Amino acid sequence: MRPSPGLRRQTPDWAAPRRASPTSSIAVHARTLRPGAAAQELHADVPRASDAWPMLGLILMVDRFHAGNGATRFVPGSHRWTGLPEDVLADRFASHPGEVLACGPAGSMILFDASTWHGHTIAWPDCRC
Length: 129
Prior knowledge:
two-stranded antiparallel ribbon; 3-stranded antiparallel beta sheet; 5 strands; 14% strand
C-alpha cells in the first residue's frame, strides 16, 4: 500500500517509507549492569552528520529502571544538535543541566533517535530499591 501523495509531502524525508537497501542493518547490543557499575559517559550512538544517520535506538527494560540501578539518562533535544558530547563537554560523566532519567517497570521499552545524548547512570552497590 502506497501513502497518498499529500501524506508523502508532509512527511520528512528521513521518515518517508523506503525499501530496505543493501546498507540497511540491524545491530543488537545487550548490557547487564552489576551493582557497583560506574556511570557511562554521555554519548550519541550516531552523529547527525554520519552516513549512518538516521538511526533508531531501542532499550528494552528487562528489569525495572530506577535511579538506584543505573537507569539511562537522556538529554532531550540533543538529537538536533550538531556537536557531540566529546567535542563540547569538559566532563561527560557529570550531570547535564537538561538531562532526564528514563525510569520504568520491567517490560517497558524506550525508542529514541540514536543521535540523542545518553548514558546509563551509576548502579549503586547497596541499593535495595
